[in-house]
Design goal:
Length: 251
């Protein structure tokens, strides 16, 4: 059983980050055309786009601020003009900030997380879902986090934004489900990354994971590809942890 996304067009926000690049490459590897959103790193976006085009799919880089309505609508118009209307949205971009306690956290961090976690998903839906409805189907995949279930010290702004995102996407799943559009969330654990290698500082975390290891960006990309495919046509409204069992949503 193969994941075949030929004939589909995906738009990945935050496509130049480590998770974003893995998702773009994997979706392209499954045959999807891909629009790579970036905020600042144009060179990396163009390099990734060229790489995917060399694989035989259509691809483009698109710049924008996913917290700004005008930018998202401009992104929609540019992608539609060049590649067509996306039927797969992967809302992955998020604002980075320095974590600290609730008592010390800058209010701007809470505002930034609201804008990049909640408002991004609202604006992306408003811009792109009408074309999915006209098409008769689509996929929306939000990238959440295991932190939304952990509620650990210093995570408050991040957790607040991602829990708000969870609420929006669950409601959206009910609202647009009749149009055969699925809405799901992938929640990574503390994945191995360029900035956070799998060194001895991560030993305590690894020991608490049932699989006794940390995952990779490819683990997240694999789940995204599955949810984007026809294999997941009857999966919607879900928060799916990809954390090696570190967090386990309950029934």
């Amino acid at each position: 059983m193969n994941i075949d996304l030929r004939g589909h067009l995906a738009l990945v926000t935050g496509g130049t980050g480590q998770l974003g690049r893995a998702m773009c490459r994997t979706l392209a590897g499954c045959g999807a055309d891909v629009a790579v959103h970036y905020h600042r790193d144009a060179a990396k976006a163009e390099e990734l786009t060229a790489e995917m085009q060399a694989q035989g799919v259509r691809a483009m880089a698109i710049q924008g601020d996913v917290t700004a309505e005008a930018d998202i609508r401009a992104m929609r118009d540019a992608v539609t003009a060049q590649l067509g209307a996306p039927d797969i949205l992967v809302n992955n971009a998020v604002i980075q900030y320095a974590w600290t306690t609730v008592l010390e956290q800058d209010i701007a961090a809470y505002e930034g997380q609201f804008r990049s976690s909640v408002l991004q998903n609202v604006l992306m839906a408003q811009a792109f879902v009408p074309a999915m409805i006209a098409r008769g189907g689509g996929r929306i995949i939000g990238i959440n986090t295991e932190c939304a279930m952990q509620n650990a010290p210093t995570q408050s702004a991040y957790v607040a934004g991602k829990r708000g995102m969870d609420g929006v996407l669950r409601v959206l799943a009910r609202e647009i489900g009749p149009h055969q559009i699925t809405v799901n969330q992938v929640a990574p654990g503390w994945m191995i990354s360029e900035n956070v290698p799998d060194d001895e500082q991560a030993a305590a975390y690894r020991e608490g994971v049932p699989l006794l290891r940390r995952g990779t960006a490819q683990d997240i990309a694999n789940m995204v590809a599955f949810l984007a495919s026809d294999l997941a046509a009857f999966v919607s409204g879900q928060y799916i942890s990809v954390s090696g069992g570190n967090v386990m949503p309950t029934i």
